[in-house]
Amino acid sequence: xxxxxxxxxxxxxxxxxxxxxxxxxxxxxxxxxxxxxxxxxxxxxxxxxxxxxxxxxxxxxxxxxxxxxxxxxxxxxxxxxxxxxxxxxxxxxxxxxxxxxxxxxxxxxxxxxxxxxxxxxxxxxxxxxxxxxxxxxxxxxxxxxxxxxxxxxxxxxxxxxxxxxxxxxxxxxxxxxxxxxxxxxxxxxxxxxxxxxxxxxxxxxxxxxxxxxxxxxxxxxxxxxxxxxxxxxxxxxxxxxxxxxxxxxxxxxxxxxxxxxxxxxxxxxxxxxxxxxxxxxxxxxxxxxxxxxxxxxxxxxxxxxxxxxxxxxxxxxxxxxxxxxxxxxxxxxxxxxxxxxxxxxxxxxxxxxxxxxxxxxxxxxxxxxxxxxxxxxxxxxxxxxxxxxxxxxxxxxxxxxxxxxxxxxxxxxxxxxxxxxxxxxxxxxxxxxxxxxxxxxxxxxxxxxxxxxxxxxxxxxxxxxxxxxxxxxxxxxxxxxxxxxxxxxxxxxxxxxxxxxxxxxxxxxxxxxxxxxxxxxxxxxxxxxxxxxxxxxxxxxxxxxxxxxxxxxxxxxxxxxxxxxxxxxxxxxxxxxxxxxxxxxxxxxxxxxxxxxxxxxxxxxxxxxxxxxxxxxxxxxxxxxxxxxxxxxxxxxxxxxxxxxxxxxxxxxxxxxxxxxxxxxxxxxxxxxxxxxxxxxxxxxxxxxxxxxxxxxxxxxxxxxxx
Length: 707
Hints:
The protein is built from 18 helices and 25 strands. By secondary structure, the chain is of the alpha+beta class. The protein folds into three domains: 65-160, Phosphorylase Kinase, domain 1; 166-377, Transferase(Phosphotransferase) domain 1 (Transferase(Phosphotransferase), domain 1); 462-697, 2-Layer Sandwich (Arylsulfatase, C-terminal domain). Helix 5 packs antiparallel against helix 7 and helix 14 (468-493) packs across helix 16. It is globular, with a radius of gyration of 29 Å. The termini are far apart.
């Protein structure tokens, strides 16, 4: 075939995401979604983002990067294997797909990317990330990665061929599907998603056009071009990406909070609705209208289209605005809706014939079929049902040094593969199962609405943070500790931890005295180490050490967060003289007027000097954030708590200054601080979690200033 002359492309075109569906023919593409598909990356980092898809640029016809892909030669030799190019399968915005055959006659799909389109290190990194993630996926319901190689003009990604089209093809031909069929499809999709999440992979572009039929009409998820790997379950991604009809609201609105596994759960709800109703729930001709509908979850079930009440309940739960209210994969397959008619397989005439399962299946057969589908999808396998928080090693993404070693070639040699604990129970009593679904939903909503119930937790004052990286560090510390508390709560529900697994008790450094004089100088404090610091109104800190004639001068830094300079008192710079005079003033004031609230002292394991990074005053308490990751909460009723060791330990300081540290999970088990039930620990831990949650979302200087 002849190719059009190559045309110049700009950076915006170069970095636009494709909508390539490799294993299907071109006429089966979802052109509406391909037209609007977007992946907006920020420059240099993965945090600041904006939606280019909001702009009316989609109305203009753009040059596809796939037009740069030259037709591969009829014979390609690579590492001793010969591939013969077959017919053209289709194209997206970034690549073209061809059928390849090896010498044995086995057929593959080859996603072909032109090297001319890989003009930047960022574009190369995106391609290598897609390859690395897809290569690591080994699941019956995920398109199998076969090989990758390159010649002088193209990079080839060899994939399992799916010859029977996609769910989008099926929906276009059938207009809508029966609920038994969709139960089967959803179960297979859930199996693949659970596997991906167990590997800490978020797909981020799950849609009907990216889910393909193999030769036996089982489903396979493909296209990992927008997939991301989480280093741990606390990490969040901030890139706004996906296909408009399927984007979760936290992706659109979560510039500060980020998104995680729950975006794929949202996509299940969109696909489930689309398969049963015939179109996505937020469909509109205008992409901005789609986004506005998603942000407020504005969808309805059409009156002229029957859908069972059980299906409506599941869809509504999947499409919850708050990610915490959405069910997990295990909770999804436990819904009553799956206890309806369930086929043993999908027939080969599914594209043209509407099955009538009412006359073919009994409920007893359906239960057996459902169990078999769960097993074949890996949802009953202990090996496949690894929780995302397990110790399974995350996928290793290509490192910078590997990228630097790449010169002429695009692909590292190492990329090519050539060189549930959940147990299924047969549920006969549907009403009992429905009650279990209701209880699980109530628990999710209760967790998600804890913050809403504390609307009056509004910060009245805090110190100014001038560095955005400092705010991000603080947000990360808050998020880490909050997750530690949530993990302890989960451990408590499981009966707690054996003594051998309890965290070792270590008393934290805490604030023992403080004076808020921010209307003139700043915020002064004394630590349990006897060090005295002043967090000045201009954002700098001076920390006067108690055990040496020395002090630290700490200021903000746009790259490091904070930088500290160490001085001897006798060699202090002249410009810091006034700072030390203020410290002496506060030291004398606190010594004369304030009592020490804790008996803790510097321990052997306190190797580093600690300073106060941020203080925040609320109506109910004052929150201190220390540089060693300890968070202290001084409540107005004179009960004080410090959360340390990433949320594993809690220190209680009584109004009479008794101080003791416990493993948090042990206090959660008992429900109160031993001998101090009047401190109302469970009420206060709710407020503590809310304070940490609020602070974990403040990651920009503009939002970080409270006056």
